[in-house]
Structure formats: C-alpha cells, structure tokens
Amino acid sequence: RKEVEQDPGPFNVPEGATVAFNCTYSNSASQSFFWYRQDCRKEPKLLMSVYSSGNEDGRFTAQLNRASQYISLLIRDSKLSDSATYLCGGAGSYQLTFGKGTKLSVIP
Amino acid sequence: GAGVSQSPSNKVTEKGKDVELRCDPISGHTALYWYRQRLGQGLEFLIYFQGNSAPDKSGLPSDRFSAERTGESVSTLTIQRTQQEDSAVYLCASSFLVGRSYNSPLHFGNGTRLTVT
Predict the structure, then answer these.
(1) Is B101 exposed, middle or buried (0-12, 13-18, 19+ CB in 10 A)?
(2) What are the E-state strand segments in chain A?
(3) Does residue A13 sit in helix, strand or coil?
(4) Is B10 exposed, middle or buried (0-12, 13-18, 19+ CB in 10 A)?
C-alpha cells in the first residue's frame, strides 16, 4: 500500500459547487498533514495545514480522521481560480510523503 | 522575506553529461529536501538534510545521483552521466523543523526543469 493515496480525478465541477477530496495515509504515527495546491508547471504551494480538530480558512475546510486514516479537503463556492491539482502530504520517516494529486477543473 | 531559490530554472543537457542543481533554502530552515516530479506525475522524494547531514539517502534513484549541503545553507544535487529518464522538474523545499513523524510545512522553490537530449 502506498503511503499516501489520492483519487487522481479529474473532478470537473461548475462554478459555485462544493467539492471534496479525500486522501488516505498508511503511517499511523504521522503527526503532520498538509494540503498543497499546484498549478500547471508551477511549484506546490501550501494551502492548509491539517489539525486533528479540523480547520477552516474561508471557503476551504480540512479535516483529519485518525481512526480511518484519511484527511479531507472541502472547497465551497468553487471559483474558476480554484482549478489546479491538490496534493496531500503526510509526515513519515523525516520526510513529507505526497499523494499524486487530485486534479480539479472548475467550469464556467 | 526571500523564499527558496533554485538555479538554474531550466537546464538542457546532452545524455552522458553531468549536471549540478543548486538550492538556497529559507534562512533559518534547518531541514532541506529534494523531490523529483516527472511530467504529469506526483512528487518523488529523493533526499533530505537535517543541517548538513543526510540521514536517509534511500530515495536517490541510482549512484549517479548525489547531494550535499553546506552547513544549514546551500545544497547541490549532482547527476552524473545523465540519462533521458532523468528529465523532470527537480524541486527543492525547506522547513523549519522535521522529526520522525512530524514536519513543519515545506516551502518549495520554483524548481529546475531538466531536459536530457
């Protein structure tokens, strides 16, 4: 089993829709989780850290489910500018392991 | 403040040549990482440094790859006798803190796009 797995998508959603991504991880000892956004031919940029209590930043909500070993990202009221690939990362063995990313396309 | 800086941003080289990629981390970040990303693929971990020590080199694809870091500053990734399969974007990242199961967020540089012809 890969350390971090994501549904690659693509997710094609209309503007204004709510979309959710899940990411599963295998290292039960991981303490740190993050969501990154990567635009085409650009470097990943930190979107949110994921805390055990869940956290919200505007239209974005991240949650951690330790029992089932997954993290989620919810995007409300999708904008065209949200179109990107979303990477989840989980800490393990002195590195951050990333999923392959979920591609989101928000359609007018 | 200044982010992670990588150079060159693009490198085209002939098969069999050696290349050296450079990374300047954010000042004060003790941990530095190298990842590789092939076109349309995810991030492949190569190596990380804690200070100038690299405890885990298992991610390096072959003995043609090596990396070093000076103090808690600049790192170089060297690829000897490049092959076409080495073509990818090489991303450097730094973070304030890293542990066995804990990371502070990674901050990525713009990457070096390597093309081996």
Answers:
(1) middle
(2) 4-6, 11-14, 19-25, 33-38, 45-50, 55-57, 60-65, 70-75, 84-92, 95-98, 102-107
(3) strand
(4) exposed
- Name the token pair of B113: 């796009």
Q: Model confidence over A44-101: pLDDT tens digits? A: 999 999 978 889 999 999 999 999 999 999 999 999 999 999 999 988 767 788 999 9
| DSSP H helices in chain B | none
For an interface test with B, the pick among A34, A39, A43 (most B C-beta atoms closer than 10 Å) comes out as A43
Q: State the CB neighbour count (10 A cutoff) for residue A14.
A: 10
Nearest one of A66, A61, A38 to A48, comparing CA atoms: A61
Cβ within 8 Å of residue A43, ≥6 positions away: B91, B108, B109, B110, B111
| Chain B partners within 8 Å of A97 (Cβ) | 45
Whether A15 and A80 have beta carbons less than 8 Å apart is answered as: yes
A-chain CB neighbours of B99 within 8 Å are 31, 91, 94
Distance CA A6, CA B21 (A): 30
**Residues found in chain A:** 108
